[in-house]
Amino acid sequence: MNTYERRLGLLAVLVAFAMTAVLAQLFKLQLLDAGEWREAADGLVTRTTVVRAPRGKILDARGRVLSQDAPAFDLAVVPAELPPEPRDYSLWGALARLLRVEVEELLERVAPAVAAAEEQAERELAAGKSRRSAKDVRADHLGRPRVICRAVCYEAVREIELRPLANAGFRALVSRRRGYPGGEDFVHVTGRHGADGAPSSLLEARFDVELSGRDGEVVLRRTPGRRASFTEVVEESAATPGADLHLTIDAADQRMARQAVEGVEGAFVVIDADSGAVLAMISTPVYPPEEFAQVYADWSDRPPGARGNPLRDLACRDFHAPGSVLKPVTALAALVEGGLDPEERIHCDRIFRIDGRPLSYLRCNGVHGDVNLHEALARSCNIYFQTLLTRIEFGAFVRAGRRLGFGQGTGIELEPKGHCGNFAEDPSDREAWPRNLRIASAIGQGDVRASAAQVARAYAAIATGRLPALHVVARVGDRETPRGGEPLGAPEPALARIRAALLAAAEPGGTAAGYGLRAYGVACKTGTAQIGDGRLHNAWIAGYAPPRAGRPRIAFAIVVLATDLHGADECGPRLRSFLDTFYAGQPG
Amino acid sequence: MSAAASRALRAALHLPVVLPVAALLLLGLLFLSGVDKAGQQVTGIAVGLAIGAVLVLVPYKQLVAKAYLFYVANIVLLVLVLFVADEVKGSQRWIKVPVFGNMQPSEFMKLTLVLTLSRFIRFKSSYKTFKGLGAPFLLTVVPMALVLRQPDLGTALLCVPILFTMLFVAGARARHLLVITVLGLASLAPVYTLLGDYQKARIDGFIGHLVSGDAPAQERKHHRQAKGYQLYQSQIALGSGGLAGVGIGEGNAHAAAWVPENHTDFIFSVVGNEAGFLGTALVLALFGALLLAILAVAWRHREPAGRLLCAGVFALFAAQAIVNVAMTVGLLPITGLTLPFLSYGRSSVVTSLAAIALVCNVAARPSYEFGPDDFSS
Question: Interface pTM (ipTM) of the complex?
Answer without folding.
Answer: 0.86
